[in-house]
Specification:
389 residues, mainly alpha, 13 helices
């Protein structure tokens, strides 16, 4: 007999599936980690001049494309495929469907790597296939449930596809000279997604873990920050390297600092799963402020602003979210285990959580089912809920 699903809990797959295909974060976080472990050392070899991956993109564009549409996109896909199921109460992709999505992502990386022996239109077609498939997987439950709060997520994924398309059209000679603008726009969109998701969950995670009641959101500032960053995306596309972009970067930086002043970052020093998220968010205003500085003085290189947003904001945030989502959705505690053997008496062990098939009522953020996401994850209708994503 099937047990009733808890309110807000995303449905488990109807048929048994392989563990690595049971939730979106499983294959995509693994792919993201493995890809980063290969790509960063390879980039160092490229910088040394020993390898030149310029059969399709030039070396710099290759680096930008694969870090954004390779590593970062894999993390985004894993998070959204998992979180949208929680937000809507409907599954996104599991089992064979999830395997197809992972296969499309891998095919894109292989196509870019094998561009020297493949026709360029084929390389573009294979690499571009993943984002529409991802948009369909997350868009179907969002639209079916009229989950308007998450329509912006679909818009961001769509704009990322357009940026990827523009980079390929540059290579194919259809839109020459746009690849740099497109790659920078893609960084802007990922930064916008970081700001959008951070406002929803970082203060909640912090308040639930630290029990500090003064930790809170500032909805007006949250919306102002998101709108300002969205305007910056548009400005960088329509008016690249113009003063309006510098002004919007400064405004967005100030808003991001102001809104996070009540997020309780100072209370998270002893909780690595929390402070890494706050550090990641702090890199956003830092990167935007460096962009303003770079426009005002040649003493600040523009690359410092770019890498504060990519290696800093995107890097820290993806590490923190991959760790938290993976722990929470596999029935593991979100806090380090106590060193004494007595810890098993006071808190459920990862194995007992996973095998019990239900969430811990006493600590929903620490013990979730291994098949379905934590039932107490934040949803649009329950901003005070606890959970992992």
């Amino acid at each position: 007999m099937k047990s009733l699903r808890l309110l807000g809990e995303a449905p488990a797959p109807a048929e048994p599936v392989a563990a690595w295909l049971a939730k979106g974060f499983r294959p995509f976080f693994l792919l993201a980690g493995g890809f980063a472990a290969l790509l960063v050392p390879l980039w160092l070899v490229v910088l040394s001049g020993r390898v030149r991956p310029d059969h399709y993109f030039d070396a710099m564009s290759w680096h930008a494309h694969e870090m954004i549409f390779g590593f970062a996109l894999a993390v985004i896909a894993g998070f959204l495929l998992t979180a949208v199921a929680n937000w809507t109460g409907r599954e996104t992709a599991v089992g064979g469907h999830l395997g197809v999505l992972a296969g499309l992502f891998v095919a894109g990386r292989v196509a870019i790597s094998a561009a020297a022996v493949l026709p360029r239109p084929l390389v573009a077609a294979v690499d571009l296939a993943f984002l529409p498939a991802l948009a369909f997987a997350i868009g179907r439950p969002i639209l079916a449930t009229r989950n308007r709060r998450n329509y912006p997520v679909l818009a961001m994924v769509s704009v990322m596809f357009l940026a990827d398309l523009a980079m390929h059209l540059d290579v194919l000679g259809v839109l020459p000279g746009v690849r740099r603008r497109a790659s920078l726009a893609a960084v802007d969109v990922v930064t916008l997604l970081v700001l959008f998701v951070a406002a929803r969950i970082f203060p909640m995670f912090t308040r639930n873990a630290t029990k500090v009641e003064t930790v809170r959101n500032q909805p007006a500032l949250d919306w102002a920050t998101t709108i300002s960053m969205a305007a910056l995306v548009l400005a960088d596309v329509a008016f690249p390297d113009r003063p309006i972009g510098t002004v919007l970067a400064g405004v967005t930086a100030a808003l991001a600092v102001a809104r996070s002043s009540t997020w309780g970052a100072r209370h998270t020093g002893a909780v690595p799963l929390l402070w890494i998220l706050h550090v990641g968010h702090a890199f956003v205003p830092l990167g935007l402020a460096l962009r303003v500085g770079a426009a005002l003085t040649p003493a600040i290189p523009a690359s410092s602003a770019l890498h504060a947003l990519t290696a800093g904001a995107i890097g820290c945030t993806t590490l923190g979210m991959m760790a938290r989502v993976s722990l929470g959705h596999t029935g593991r505690p979100l806090t380090p285990p106590a060193r004494s053997s007595s810890r098993s008496r006071s808190s459920p062990s990862p194995r007992s959580c996973a095998s019990s098939g239900r969430s811990s009522a006493a600590a929903p953020s620490a013990c979730c089912t291994s098949r379905a996401p934590c039932s107490a994850s934040p949803s649009p209708s329950s901003p005070s809920a606890t959970g992992s994503c």
